[in-house]
Write a structure and sequence with these properties.
By secondary structure, this protein is mainly beta. It is built from one helix and ten strands.
Amino acid sequence: MGMKRTLLFFLSCLAMEAAQAQNTLPFDPEVGAPEATIQDVAWIAGHWVGDKWGGQVEEIWAPPMGDAMMGSFRFVSEGKAVFYEILIITEEEGTLMLRLKHFHGDLKGWETQDETVDFPLVKLTENAAYFDGLTFRKLSENNIEVIVLAAEEGQPAEELDFPYVRYQPD
């Protein structure tokens, strides 16, 4: 394949991936992150539940304290916890960073001890926080959605939508 043909193929792949990712935004290091404080995303706080992959998903976010929020995620299928995530959103250098770690159902980590999956802030609106490939949207006081750009090894990236409702105990 010639250089020009290779470049055209590469650009068409990028265009296809960008077309698929309509609800998430990539971080551009040349543009940088917008100014923000943890109070700008305080609306994420709450106990959120939903259905995904034939099971139940749950996110619990504590309100801001100091310069951070902490959250947890779990996926339960057929009555068994499949995996968990521990998440934080922190103020760093005048903007926000979301970090997470994954754990199997038995709490054995996916990432190494000192490794996190990092999502710098890309854009902030009144009802949405766009991190690199991960978006939180406030739909109402009792509904949010989290959209994650994810790819299985060897597969193209796709957006996964997690619609949540505020947990209402019986």
